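Hi support team,

I submitted a single chain yesterday and got back a structure, but I'm not sure I'm reading the token output correctly. Could someone confirm the output below corresponds to the sequence I sent? I've pasted both exactly as they appear in my results page.

Thanks,
R.
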Amino acid sequence: MPLVTTGELITGATATRSAVAAFNVITLEHIEAVIAGAESASSPVVLQVSENAVKFRYGRLLPLARAAVAAAERAAVPIALHLDHIQSDDLLRQAPDAGFSSVMYDAARLPYLDNLAATKAAVDWAHAQGLWIEAELGRLGGKNGEPPLDAHAPGARTDPAEAHAFVTDSGVDALAVAIGSSHAMTTRTATLDHDLLKRLAATLDVPLVLHGSSGVPDDELTAAVAGGIAKVNVGTALNIAMTGAIRDFLAAHPEAVDSRKYLSVGREAMVRAVAGIIGVLRGRRSGHGETLTPDAVTS
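Hi R., thanks for writing in. Yes, this is the structure output for that exact sequence:
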């Protein structure tokens, strides 16, 4: 089916107090697995390409983007394309022609006023191109030239009043909030600040996004959705699923040299992970323990 926009998926999720799963993809196998998993769950999904993924692909956006568009147009469920954690203005400007309907513009490394200025300029340009745009705040109280703190560093929290001012002054369509998750976690031990999430949801009139959910247990994720999170970003869990499955296959088949043999195993592990993540966001527990295994189903 034709591509849909991230904005319409998030608007629908916000209206129904649900969340859209957004999966970061690196290879064609990632793309195929996310779509197959979403189809098995009969759920719309967002395919995300990060700036780091573009760097991995020799700095070229179009090869992976064109593959994502082609696969999405043949999917049985609605698919949107999102450019994630973009710091390069040049890459931002490639988004519309590459098939993306949305971007996450990441100036959170900067002090508050610099983040605001850069994000406002990105919003003005993006909106003129019809793009939906997400941003995040880098630190609690990061004003007056204070050094930046990564939004998902231990202890980082989004201040509701500061967030309200940032959203109002920048004009962003969604805000990624720091409530206790961290990027690239491989153990599911994060505890989210649900009281803070409640205050953020009451203060802000834009959809809220959860980044770095790899270490967030099932019940914490479902509570976050109930508390107002409308988009959940997933990355590390897919890489763990793929890598673990391939590692196990090669250990059992040391003679294997045909990459299709082990890539297909890795791809199917990611399909299961995607379907499981979507189930968790719908309120079903994954049944897995605290360590992310190759078949782990939360990000």
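A quick pointer for reading it: Residues 140-146, 287-299 have pLDDT under 50 and may be disordered. Let us know if anything else looks off.

Best,
Support desk
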